UniProtKB/TrEMBL annotation:
This is DUF112 domain-containing protein. Pfam families: TctA (PF01970). The keyword Transmembrane helix applies. It comes from bioreactor metagenome. Keywords: Membrane, Transmembrane, Transmembrane helix. The lineage of its organism: unclassified sequences, metagenomes, ecological metagenomes. InterPro entries: DUF112_TM. The chain crosses the membrane at residues 20-51, 63-86, 113-136, 148-165, 171-192, 204-224, 263-286, 326-347, 359-382, 394-412, 418-447, 476-495. Residues 24-443 form the DUF112 domain.
């Protein structure tokens, strides 16, 4: 697909698009907003990107992705600030950072801890962008050779992984994913063009729009949780004067930890439906296991900050690999970014590299610049971002609610979309109360259309022969992995049963 000259073109085509004042300003604003969303416990990259996606509708694609990718990278980093200062991770991916970051803060070394988190996040993010730029074009070339059977089986595997890695019960995760699949069937049949489950409503003949569902599930449901906990006390952060800028020396001293975390983060992030949290947990566990002094972990060990922070930020670049090359989300945020691509008339997948190489190139460059920006903002502005944790909840609630409603309405100027937003906000709130994760629902909804399309295409091309799914190695392996993933909780129980009896 790409010769050496075309490959160089892919890397440099986006430079004129990105290095414009409005794009760089949008990236700065997006990264700043992202850090704020990351610092505030309860908010996250998912909520930030979901709320701001509809607001980018009237913008050009480079400006839109500068804001959204800035929010994505900034939020993942920002979670480490609250994890270190108040022992509450601002985002789920910073859950391991607090184990050693907060003990350092209690020793009066909060500035050093944030410096380590900032620089390791930066290095991890940069390494992941280079790995993304190296692997994505090659994988896109390979993806063009895949058949409908192989795409179907890969998407099916992605949905099964979502259910298994969901918080709490895998069964609840599976239920959520199935709900998403069922939602995807509403609208017009992709093969016969008959309408299904529309109940005479013209607004859903084309199916539900992904934006109001996402913003409702992640934004409005979070607002309802904030309102419910209105009597909670304001948070207080450990005080510090400035971030230690000489933390780069400590990073160089622990360069193998950074490289391990970055590689783990990139490749874990590239597995559909995983993300930074799992990457951080694996990286922290590995560093503790191979350490000569594992007893120091949990007491302010610098590698306990460097490992997980380099991993969770590297996962951002890794998650972009399946999104850009296959059109399959690497995590919940990239599922929303798929919706953003479609909102701007772009189809994620291998054809994006052929039809819009300048957009792919601009995404690479924006990710690179976003990591540089949060490094600068983090080193020189962390003490100001730390004050965000004490913002009054009424301000946050009104801000999120206003952005969510205005953004959703502006996409199609449709009041129906606002009602969908409210309904799915209530659904998301109820699901949270019942312990049912919302992420599998949105991922199932996005992948559901692809699963049905590729399934129907496969059956039409093979004249209804279901064994055609096992005729190609990738398809057969993916289906086997899907079955293994679904059965793995029960297999684990069977293996553990004899040990318990002994």
């Amino acid at each position: 697909m790409f010769g050496s000259g075309e490959l160089l073109g892919l890397y440099f085509d986006g430079i004129p698009l990105v290095f414009q004042f409005n794009v760089l300003l949008a990236l700065t604003i997006g990264t700043t907003i992202g850090i704020i969303f990351g610092v505030i416990p309860g908010l996250s990259a998912t909520i930030g990107v979901a709320i701001f996606t509809p607001l980018t509708y009237t913008m050009s694609a480079p400006v839109a992705f500068a804001i959204l990718l800035g929010i994505y990278c900034g939020s993942v980093y920002g979670g480490s600030i609250s994890a270190i200062l108040i022992n509450i991770p601002g985002t789920a991916s910073s859950v391991m950072t607090r184990l050693d970051g907060h003990p350092l803060a209690l020793k009066g070394e909060a500035g050093r801890a944030i410096g380590l988190a900032t620089t390791s996040s930066f290095v991890g993010g940069i390494i992941s962008v280079f790995l993304l730029a190296f692997f994505a074009p090659k994988l896109a070339s390979f993806a063009l050779q895949l058949s409908a059977q192989e795409y179907f089986s890969i998407c099916l595997f992605g949905i099964s992984v979502i259910a298994y890695i969901s918080e709490g019960s895998p069964i609840k995760g599976l239920i959520s994913g199935i709900l998403g699949l069922l939602l995807a069937t509403i609208g017009t049949d992709p093969i016969t063009a008959y309408t299904r489950f529309t109940f005479g409503k013209a607004e859903i003949v084309g199916g539900f729009e992904v934006i109001p569902i996402m913003v409702g599930l992640f934004g409005i449901s979070e607002v309802l949780k904030m309102v419910e906990n209105k009597n909670s006390l304001p948070l207080k952060a450990e005080k510090f004067s400035r971030v230690k800028i000489n933390s780069f020396k400590e990073i160089l001293k622990n360069i193998t930890t950074v490289i391990r975390g970055s590689v783990i983060g990139t490749f874990i992030g590239a597995v559909p439906a995983t993300g930074g949290t799992i990457a951080a947990i694996i990286s922290y566990g590995l560093e503790k296991r191979i350490s000569k002094h594992p007893e120091t972990f949990g007491k302010g060990e610098e590698r306990g900050i460097i490992g997980p922070e380099s991993a969770n930020n590297a996962a951002t670049g890794g998650a972009m690999i399946p999104m850009l090359t296959l059109g399959i989300p690497g995590d919940v945020v990239t599922a929303i970014l798929i919706g953003a691509l479609m909102l701007h008339g772009l189809a994620p997948g291998p054809m994006l590299f052929e039809q819009n190489p300048e957009i792919v190139s601009s995404i690479f460059i924006i990710l690179l610049l976003s990591n540089i920006l949060f490094l600068v903002l983090g080193l020189f502005g962390a003490k100001y971002f730390a004050k965000v944790v004490s913002w009054p909840k009424p301000i946050l609630v009104s801000m999120i609610l206003c952005l969510a409603i205005v953004g959703t309405f502006s996409v199609r100027n449709s009041l129906f979309d606002v009602w969908v937003l409210v309904i799915f906000g209530l659904i998301g709130y109820i699901m949270n109360k019942l312990g049912i994760p919302t992420a599998p629902l949105i991922l199932g909804f996005i992948l559901g259309g692809m699963v049905e399309q590729y399934l129907r295409q496969s059956l039409v091309l093979s004249f209804g022969n279901i064994f055609s799914f096992f005729s190609r190695p990738i398809s057969a392996i993916s289906i086997g992995l899907t079955i293994l993933t679904i059965l793995s909780p029960y297999i684990t129980k069977v293996i553990k049963l004899p040990r318990k009896q002994k």
